[in-house]
Amino acid sequence: MTEIFGIPIQAFAGQLLIGLQNGCFYAILSLGLAIIFGMLNIINFAHGALFMTGAFAAWYCTTSLGLSYWAALAVVPVVVGLFGILIERLLLQWLYKLDHLYGLLLTFGLALVIEGLFQHKFGSSGQSMSSPEALQGAVNLGFMFLPIYRGWVVGASIVLCIITWFMIERTRLGSYLRAGTENPRLVQSFGINVPLMITLTYGYGIALAAFAGVLAAPIIQVSPHMGANIIIVVFAVVVIGGMGSIMGSILTGLGLGLVEGLTKVFYPEASSTIVFVVMAIVLLIRPAGLFGKEK
Amino acid sequence: MKNLQTVGYAALLLLGLVAPFAVYPVLLMKCLCFGLFACAFNLLLGYAGLLSFGHAAFLGMAGYICGYTVQSLGFPPELGILAGTATAGLLGLAIGFLAIRRSGIYFAMITLALAQIVYFFCLKAQFTGAEDGLQGVPRGHLFGVFDLSQPLTMYYTVLAIFVGGVWIIHRTVHSPFGQILKSIRDNEPRAISLGYDVDRFKLLAFVLSAALAGLAGATKTMVFQLASLTDVHWHQSGEVVLMTLLGGMGTIFGPVVGAIVLVLLQDWLTGFGSWVVVLTGLIFIICVLAFRRGILGELLALKARML
User: Which H or E run contains B178?
Assistant: First the structure.
């Protein structure tokens, strides 16, 4: 069997893999948005910009600082996460008592500032970065050639998502977090430092975005606009999945990546809008989202 | 008090009439177009409490339709503007129908995503000229009589459209319909329990806001003889939010003030490239943190404190 629906299976599997890999980025980013929204009640528009910051930091570390890819993968999420903590302490903490919309507006402004600064420094054109030597090349799986780096991205992302899910759903720290999402005042009265937890949650969400940025850097053009392009899609993913469930965010992200990949095979013209179309359909059929429990 | 208000409006109108003799008319027309756009947006945010992050779709789409009908189908300017406005209204009906199914933060994300479909459509469609946009749209003769290629004639036409649009918004806000919108903004469950079909009111407000945004977009195309992707981009959607926030949401003229400040600022900073984006972002942050009532809102609050 070399063809499926009249399309060579090589090309078909290749597009699906790219779809799955984009789905991994959607999953990590929407996961971060969901846990941040749970604790802070803020939709973090700057998430895309910080994803982009992660990618640029990886590019800078490997090309200018002479660090290895692996060092960048370890250092960049920590540094960008600390930057996130700074943002939370300096700006976001003043907004918790206000309407949700102000959080969206402030982080939107923040995204513009970050994007503008990168554009000023590096211009609009993309930078490229090579993947580490250990992950170059491809293996023959019989029905397709699997580029090792893409396989690594998918594997690492899924492991990261599962670790995050486990931490939130199955550990004591996670139970504090879930309780804090339900009723922060009650949790605080039990002697748990909720403001600290909020700060760390934001930092972790941002570190996730930066980690995805480092993973993406060798396979996407590293440009100041990459963040804004992806965040709008991720918003649609969040609307489709609903932000109530961690596993829901992960599955929706991966699923929509696959749908996008399939669309590239069968109807390439629609590949940039398919996620938004799916969102419209979900709104018609199940307005609360696939995993949502609103109302 | 009522008399004072009438005198104030008359003074503003007079200012609008004499302004082109002191200031470059194209800049003024740009202020008026964006002012109307921001007012239309504010009808939704300030009075119905709905934050749309996709209003550029209506501005840009109306601009394209107006440009296309005038340039390629030979419509007279008034029909072109009408066609653009109507298209924006219909688009508002479609987007609004989907978006009002969720509220709050989701509403913003949905409108942003749906507007992105419109953006990609405009990027790919034939009639929009893709990356080049529509250039050299002829201004023609309004009602076959007034030659719009004369800057002053064009300016007074734009002024008339602006005054008409703002008047519609003013009437809407102060009508029973406007009162219901405000009650939905302040307490939606209460409005539902009083028997109002909240979704219908929201949708109607959305369509009205979209159509007026379209009117601004179509007029803008006639002024600049140009329709481009900039006007459908999400940056534009963000900018109109900022204009409203900066000027004062929930006031009739606040958004106009915000629009004028932002247009002048951008005009002044052309040539600084991406610093404009950084500055826009900074103003956003400052407004949210320290200045949530906006320029006009702060002035009104100051006045209330002094009386």
Answer: helix B176-186
Minimum distance, in Å, between the CA of residue A130 and any CA atom of chain B: 28
Can you tell me the distance from the alpha carbon of A150 to that of A156, in angstroms, rounded to the nearest whole number? 10
- pTM of this structure: 0.90
Q: In sequence order, what are the residues at sequence separation of 6 or more whose Cβ sits closer than 8 angstroms to the Cβ of residue A158?
A: A24, A254
Q: Which residues pair with A127 in a beta bridge?
A: A222
Which positions ≥6 away from B38 have C-beta within 8 Å? B240, B243, B244, B247, B255, B256, B258, B259
Q: Which two tokens stand for residue A285?
A: 């059929």
* B31 found inside a domain: yes
**pLDDT exceeds 90 at position B209:** yes
Work out how many CB contacts closer than 8 A connect A with B: 122
| Residue B39: closest CA among B291, B247, B199 | B247
| Helix (H), strand (E), coil (C) string for chain A | CCEECCEEHHHHHHHHHHHHHHHHHHHHHHHHHHHHHHHHCCCCCCHHHHHHHHHHHHHHHHHCCCCCHHHHHHHHHHHHHHHHHHHHHHCHHHCCCCCHHHHHHHHHHHHHHHHHHHHHHHCCCCECCCCCHHHCCEEECCCCEEEHHHHHHHHHHHHHHHHHHHHHHHCHHHHHHHHHHHCHHHHHHCCCCHHHHHHHHHHHHHHHHHHHHHHHCCCCCECCCHHHHHHHHHHHHHHHHCCCCHHHHHHHHHHHHHHHHHHHHHCHHHCCCHHHHHHHHHHHHCCCCCCCCCC
Distances in Å between the alpha carbon of A119 and those of A63, A195, A220? 18, 34, 17
For B27, the domain range is 23-234
Q: Closest chain B residue to A269 measured between Cα atoms?
A: B124
Q: How far is CA B32 from CA A277, B105, B149, B155, in A?
A: 35, 30, 18, 9
**3-state SS, residue B253:** coil
Q: Is the ipTM of this complex over 0.90?
A: no
Query: Under an 8 A CB cutoff, do A108 and B284 touch?
Result: yes
Q: Is B134 helix (H, G, I), strand (E, B) or coil?
A: strand
B44, part of any domain: yes
- Among B112, B116, B281, the residue with its CB nearest the CB of A109 is B281
Look at chain B and report how many structural domains it folds into.
1
Distance from CA of A11 to the nearest CA of B (A): 25
Q: Report domain extents, chain A.
A: 26-126+146-221
Is residue B6 situated within a structural domain? no
CB contact under 8 A, A236 and B113: yes
Residue A246 phi, psi dihedral angles, 5° rounding: -65, -50
CB contacts of A271 in chain B (<8 Å) are none
φ and ψ of A41, to 5 deg: 60, 35
Q: Cβ–Cβ of A100/B104 closer than 8 Å?
A: yes
Which residue is closest to A289 within chain B, CA to CA? B102
Q: Give domain status of residue B299, yes or no.
A: no
- Residue of A105, A116, A277 with shortest CB distance to B245: A105
Per-block average pLDDT, block size 10, for chain A (295 residues)? 70 86 93 88 91 94 88 93 94 86 91 92 82 79 81 92 91 87 87 89 94 92 89 90 85 92 86 88 85 64
Helix/strand/coil for B187? coil
